[in-house]
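ugh ok so i messed up the first submission bc i forgot one of the chains. this is the corrected input, ALL of the components this time, i swear. 952 residues overall. if the numbers dont match what u have on ur side tell me asap before i send this to the collaborators (the ones from the other lab, u know who)
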Amino acid sequence: MEYLIHLAILFSIYAMLGVGLNLVVGYTGLLSVTHAAFYGIGAYATAILLTKTGAGFFASIILGMIVAIAVSFLIGIVLSKFKGDYYALGTFGFNTIVFAIFLNWQSLTRGPLGIPGISKPELFGINFADNLNFLILALVSLGLIYFISRFIVNSSFGRVLKTIREDEEAIQVFGYNTLYFKLAIFVISAAIAAVAGSFFASYITFVDPSSFRLMESVFILAIIILGGLANLRGSILGALFLILLPETLRFVGFPADIAAQMRQVVYGVILILLMLYRPQGLIGEYKL
Amino acid sequence: MDILPQLIINSIIAGAIYTLIALGFNLIYGATKFFNLAHGVMAAVGGYSVFYFAKTLGLDIYLAAVIGVLITGLVGYGLDRLVYSPLRKRKASNMVLLVASLGAFTAIQAIIAILFTSQFKTLSQGVGTQRIFEVFGGVITQTQIIIILAAILVMVGLVLLLYKTQLGKAVRAISDDEEVARIVGINTNKVISYTFFIGSAIAGLAGILVGFDTGIEPTMGLSLLLKGVIASIVGGIGNIYGGVFGAFLLGFVENFGIWKISGEWKDAIAFALLIIFLIFRPKGIMNK
Amino acid sequence: MNQSTKWIIGVVVVAIIGVVYFVSKGPSQPVSTEPIKIGFIGPLTGDAANIGQNVRAAVEIAVNEVNQAGGVDSRTLEVIYEDGQCTGNVASNAANKLINIDKVSLILGGACSGETSSFAGAAEQSKTAVLSYCSSAPAISQAGDYIFRNYPSDLYQGSFGAEYVYNKLSKKKIAILYAKSDWGNGIKNVFVKRFNELGGTILAEEGYEQTSRDLRTQLTKIKSANPELVYFLGYTEASIPGIKQAKELGLNAPLFGGDAWDDSKIWTDVGSAGEGAMYSVVYAPLNSDFKSKMRTKIGNDEITICTPQAYDAVKLIAKVIEKVGINAEAIKNELYKTSYTGGVSASEIKFDSNGDLVGANYIVKVVRNGEAVEAK
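and heres the new structure output, hopefully the right one now
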C-alpha cells in the first residue's frame, strides 16, 4: 500500500509536468525539450527556501513559479526566433545551460552536493510526512492545474494556439501577434513545471542537478507523445503508463540496476514505435 | 603564459574529435535534412564493440578497431532501414524523425549499459601510460596524435568520396534536392542508407579513439553528439568544411574559455555559442 | 472516443489493476518471530563499487555469524541491500524506499559521504537511526540526533594530511585537485585551513565533477603552477584516469591522496604511473581471523577501507537491538551509551554527543610496484 502511494505521488508530479508541456508542444506545436529546466527551478526554489529560511512550502511554490516565469520569459524571447527542429535544438541548449547553472552556482545550490533535508509542507497542522496526505495534496494540485489548462485550451486563447500550430503565417495575416501567444503559453507551462518541481523536492527531500538533465526533458516529452498530443487527459494517461510500466519490470525480476536501464530501453523503443505506427499517441488529436 | 602551448594542443585534440562527429552528422544531415540524434550513441557503439572484441575476446587491437567501425556502420545502416526509411516514405516531418532518433538514442544507450554496466572503462592496452611527445612546450600522447591524424584522413577521405566517386555524386545530388535526384534515377533510399553507414562508422571511430584517449561509458554519446551538432551548425550545416571549421572553433572556444572560467562551464559555453549562432547566423559561418 | 481508444484505455486499466494486485501481495506485517530487518546502503555499482562490494561481503559474513549464534532475540537478522552508487540522488531514493516502504528502524550506510548526506535529513525527520560505516565528511557531525558513524570525521584526516605533507614530507608549496562532493570538499576545506596555518602555500586549487573522467584541463592548470606535490582527493573511477593523465601531461610532482585511494583497483589499473603515490587512511587493526574469513568468502586478500568498520557495525547493531529492541528511538539512545570492544576496525567503538566515532588513528601508505604498503 505504501508503495502504491509512492507511485501515485510520482504519477501526480509527472502528470503535472506532462499537462504543462502539452500546452506548448501539443497545442501550440513548439517542440520544447527544456521542461526539466523549469522543473528544476521549482525544485531548487523549494529546496533553498525550506532549508535556508523558515519560509513555508506554499511560499516556495510561489517563489519557484516567479523565478520560472522570469527565466522562461527570457528563454522564450530568444527561442521565438527559431522554427521547427532548430527550435528543439535551441531548447536543448537552454536545458544544458540551466543545468550548468544548477551545477556551478554552488554558493546557491551547493552544486553536485545537492540540497538534502527538505521538509514537508505545513498546513493547518496536517502531518504531510504521512505520504497519504502528501498524495492528496499533490492530486489536488494536479486537479487545479488540469482544470486551469482545460480552461485555457478551450478558450479563444487556446484556439489561437492551435491555429499557430497549424499555420502560423495565416493567423499573422489576421493581425495576431503570435509572438505574444507563444511566449505566454511557454511561460505558463514553465510555471506549472515549477509547481511540480516543488512537490518533487519536498517529497524526495533531496535535490541535486542530476534530476534535471536533458534526458529528463526527453522523458517528459515521451509522456505526452505517448499519451497523445493536444489532449490533456492523454498526458495524464501517458504519465500513468510510463510510471507504472517500469514497476511491472521490477516484478519480472530484473535486478535493480538493470531495471533502471531497461526502463530507458522501453521508453526509447516506445518513442520509436509511436513515431512509426501511432504518432498521435494513445488518445491524441495531433500528430507531430 | 607557459600554459598556452598546452591549451592550443588541447584545443586541437578536442577539435579533432568534434570534427569526426561533425563529419558524420553533417553527411547524414545533408542527405536527409534532419538532425539524427542517434548519431551520438554510435560513438558508444564503436567504443564498446572494440572493448568487447579486444578486451573480452582478446582480439588484436587493430582488428578489433576495424570490426568496431564496421559494426557501428551496420547499426547506423540498420537504424535507417528499420526506422527512418519507413518514416521518410510516409513523408513524416523532421520533428517526427527527431523524436524517433531520440528514442533510438535512449534505447541503444541503455542497452549498452545493460550489456556492459555503466562503469567507466578504458580501451588502452596494458597498464600504465603511453608514449608522450613534447611539442612546442606542450605535451601530447600517441593516441592524441592518432586522433588528429584520423580526423585529417577522414576529412580528406570524405571529400574524395563526395567529389570523386559515383556514390559521392549521388549523395551530393540528394543533398541538393532529393526529389530531383530520384527523378534522375538515383536510388535515393539505398544511397541514404549508405550515408548512414558511413556517417555512423565515422562516429564509431570517434568513440573508439576517445576510448583510447580517456575511456568509454554508456553516456559518452550525448556530450559528443551535442558538440557535433554545435560544430555543424556553427560551421554551416550540411557543409563538410563548415563542420570541420566549426569543430575546431568549438574546441578552441571551450578550452580557452575554461582557462579563466571553471571547467564545469564547458558545456554551457558550448551551448551559449550555439544559441548565439542560431540567433544571428543560423546558416553557420560557411553557408552552402 | 472511438473504439480503438476505448480498447487502449481498457488495456491500461487492466495493467494498473495487475500492478495493484502484485504490489498488494507485498511484504506482510511483521510478527515477533519474523526476521529483524535493517537497511543497507552502499556503492554496489559505480564510483566506489569495489569498496561497496567488499563491504557487502563483510556485512554478509557478520550477519551470518550473528544468525549462527542464535540471531537477535531468537529472530534472524536480515539485511535489505540497496545500491547507493556513491551518488546523492540514488542513495536518497534508496533510503526513501527503506524508510517508507520497508519501514526499517535502522540504515547501515551510506559509504560515500554524498550518500549519507543526501538521506540523513529524511532519516532524521522520520526518526530512523543511521549508522554509517564509512562516511567521513565533517558536516555529518551535525546531521542529526539519529545519525551515527563508526568512521572518523575528516576533520582529523584533513589536518593529518596537512601536517604530514608539510612536516614529514617538507612540501611547502602544493596544489590541490579534488572531487566536488561532500567527501572531497570536506577534506579539502580542513586541509587548506591547516596547511595555511602551518605556513604552507597552496598554489592552485582545482575541483572537478565527481563523474568527470577527463581531468586534463585541471591538471594542465596545476602543472603550470609548478607545485612540489599534488594533494589529489578522488574516488576510484576518476583517480584512475586522473593519475594516468597527470603522468601523460608530464606532471611529475608526487601525489598524495585520501582514504578513498585504499582500493587496490586503482593501483592495479594505473600501473607504473602510480609508483610512489601516497595516501592517508584510517588504521584498522584487523586480525588474522577476519582476514581468513574474508579470503574464504571472496577468494582473494583484498580488504578495502570501511570493510572492517561495516563488519563491526553489524555486530554492534545486533548487540544493541538485542538489548533494547527494534524501536529506532531506543536504538538511538542506546548507541550514545555503547562501548564496543574487540572489533576489527578499532580497539573500542564509542560515539560522542554528535554521533561521531571517538578517536581516530591514521597511517600513510605508499604505492610500490602496484601495491600499497605502510610508509615507514
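quick check: Chain B is about 75% helix and 5% strand. that seems consistent at least. The first strand of chain B starts at residue 132 and ends at 135.
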